[in-house]
Amino acid sequence: MDRYESPAFARLFFAYTGSPRSIGGQLTLASERRYAAAPLIVATHGDLALYPGNGAEPTIEGFRLSTRGFKELTAVSHLGPALATLARIKELDPDGPWPAGAAELLAATQETREANSPELWRDLVGIKSFAGREPAIAAMIDHACLVTERFLQRALENPSSLTAETVRRDALEGPSDELPVSLNRIMVATFYLFGMDLGHRLITWFDGLGLPWEDTMVIIAGRQGRPTAGVTRDSNSVAGIISAASRNRLPETSLLIAPHAPVFPTYDGSNLDAVAALEPEYRRLWSGVRATTELGEQMFAGYPRFEPARTGGQRIRPGTATISELPAIDGPADWFALTSRLRLVLEDPRQLLSGAITDFAARQLVDNGNNPAQLFVPGLDGEPYPLCSVQGEAS
Known about the structure:
Elements: H1 7-16, H2 23-34, E1 40-43, E2 47-51, E3 59-62, H3 70-77, H4 79-92, H5 98-115, H6 118-125, H7 134-157, H8 164-172, H9 183-209, E4 217-221, H10 237-245, E5 255-258, H11 272-277, H12 279-293, H13 295-300, H14 335-347, H15 358-367
Parallel strand pairs: 1-4, 4-5
Antiparallel strand pairs: 1-2, 2-3
Helix pairs in contact: 2-12, 3-9, 4-5, 4-8, 5-7, 6-7, 9-10, 9-14, 9-15, 10-15
InterPro entries: DUF5624
Pfam families: DUF5624 (PF18538)
Organism: Kribbella antibiotica
């Protein structure tokens, strides 16, 4: 039987919504005109665009895909998860392909250790925010590779030694006499370094713009990481950096996360017109959402108003059984919270894996005048990395 639709009810439905001529559509257009001159920031997976307002040409800042050292740092971040993954594969399929994966990881780790040096980080990767830390970074990576190589060699020689328990004991956890710096600490360090560099560059860019943050509109558009990640304010690392860059002047309700919004093409220096072409749609999206939310006060004055919750401040300690958001970090020595964040971003599908420490790094940058040299990098600074050949090569 065909679905019946009453023409009268349909007319009533479309009177309010469904077209620019509807009452709802007219409200969106009125809101769009109201905010036409307001600065609009749109963040995609790789670029930030500032649309100044009133049709002025946008300004673009590439921030993720153009990040120097992204693959190098991420490769080292992956060493701990790679070992745990091999143990899990072996547990599920003892006679399966895990030895081939272990052999490939071993060869790649050995090649990386040979290529690693302070000169690589200073002269070739050349990340400005890392200046002065290149010898320490090289020593950290040398140690991470050695720990991984030894674990893999033992696993290939004695397969019974590859278990989740041995991965935790001999690689991830510590420190101990046999493992002076654990891979968990190195994972925190690499995530922090990535967040420090990203935050430093974006805060510098935003500070140079001199934005009226109280009147600025922000949209984070499209997919940000794994398909389920970054869809809430507290799970989106870019949102955290923008908030920090505004020195918390940006109203919480002015930042929208729109995973299904259109995404302008990655800026290559020649396609500014393609970026500019989407501005009307972005402004209509933001204005339409804002117009609807502003009805709340008019319709329900006297009832409790909505206030976005800041959920990322839970204090935890050994014995805390569960967490649902990124916990607070009481300084760079709060290893229980730092490591708990690693578990959370792995288990919570909403989280961006690289966002485990980004908000912490961004806040520390703001508190220290956006000067990376003033920061203490947990897992890197002050750690007892064993003496190795790369430490003596820095000039």
